[in-house]
Amino acid sequence: MKQFFKQVDFGTKLFDIAHRQRTETEFEGYCHFHQSCELLYIHRGTGHVIVNEENYPMKPGMLYYFQPYELHLVHAETSPETPYERTIFSFDPVQVAAKLKSWDWMHGKFQRLWFQSLAECAFDLSDRFAFVEGIFDMSGLHKEAQRHEEQEERTLLLLMQLMTCIDEKATPLPPAIRVTRYSEQIMQWIEQHYAKGFDLDMLAEALHLSKSYCSRVFRQETGSSITEYVNATRIRHACRLLQTTSKSVEWVGSEVGLGNTSYFCQTFKKVTGISPHKYRTRGVLL
């Protein structure tokens, strides 16, 4: 069984979602890990999930939470009569933490899920199966025509509801801070400084690393360059501003650290496939 790093490319999105994926053919699974956080919810199916050398059973109503770079294996026993149906959503913890800052209690819960060692990663919600299925249905994840901002808000609300379920089921552990990867630290620094002119020297100095090591380790751990991540972060914030304000394209570019309007428009189109003006007028979902 191979170990596999599965890169999650968020682009301008806060979440990467696979809603009610259904498999009826053989599903052996494979060991893999991500640079992001991941939630896996089981609607239908049996099998097992292995993480941190622990083997957890799979059944409807199980919710699994994987921290960044946490190796896990999912194996489902499938057939047309017993399909494997699940919802998976991955998210960039840096961006989610920023979104949750307005809610002190929820932000604290999320910080602990992100950074602290956990007693378990599997949570049995089968005793409230109908309720959890209901919040998935009400989340609107199945509605493909939603605007970007609407889907982001609905998914964030679903995440907060699931975090509450996890909090009620979790076994408390003495506080123990998980060692974060350098790429996570780099992402946090970029989130705090993306609106300024990017300076690799400042980043390297803040992390007490050399510039070459910063660049090399980020690519090794995420599969992309620091510059690509900075641009994706800036354009994601630009998308939000284009949809939530009537400010000019020039102003939006300046707000996200791309003061040269021509370069901002080129970068925006390279990341999203369309111009800032078309993005605003279409209200597209990326």
If strands are numbered along the chain, what order do they take across the biggest sheet? 2-9-4-7-10
Detail the poorly predicted runs.
none
Rg, alpha carbons: 20 Å
CATH class term of the largest domain:
Mainly Beta
Q: What form results from the Cα inertia axes? A: globular
H and E order = EEEEEEEEEHHEHHHHHHHHH
CATH homologous superfamily annotation of the largest domain: Regulatory protein AraC
Strand content: 15-25%
Task: Outline the secondary-structure elements.
Layout: E1 3-5, E2 15-23, E3 31-33, E4 37-44, E5 46-51, E6 54-58, E7 62-66, E8 72-77, E9 84-91, H1 93-99, H2 104-115, E10 122-124, H3 129-139, H4 148-169, H5 182-193, H6 200-207, H7 211-222, H8 226-244, H9 249-255, H10 261-272, H11 276-282
Parallel strand pairs: 1-3
Antiparallel strand pairs: 2-9, 4-7, 4-9, 5-6, 5-8, 7-10
Helix pairs in contact: 3-4, 5-8, 8-10, 8-11
Structure, described:
With 286 residues, this protein is an alpha+beta fold. The chain folds into 2 domains: 3-169, Regulatory protein AraC (Jelly Rolls, Sandwich), CATH 2.60.120; 182-282, Homeodomain-like (Arc Repressor Mutant, subunit A, Orthogonal Bundle), CATH 1.10.10. The chain has 11 helices and 10 strands. The strands form 3 sheets. It has a 5-stranded antiparallel sheet with strand order 2-9-4-7-10. The chain has a 3-stranded antiparallel sheet with strand order 6-5-8, with no helix packed on it. Strands 1-3 form a two-stranded parallel ribbon. Helix 3 (129-139) packs antiparallel against helix 4 and helix 8 crosses helix 11 (276-282). The longest helix has 22 residues, at 148-169. The two termini are 34 Å apart. The mean pLDDT is 84. GO terms for molecular function: DNA-binding transcription factor activity; sequence-specific DNA binding. Residues 184-282 form the HTH araC/xylS-type domain. It comes from Paenibacillus swuensis. Keywords: DNA-binding, Transcription, Transcription regulation. This is HTH araC/xylS-type domain-containing protein.
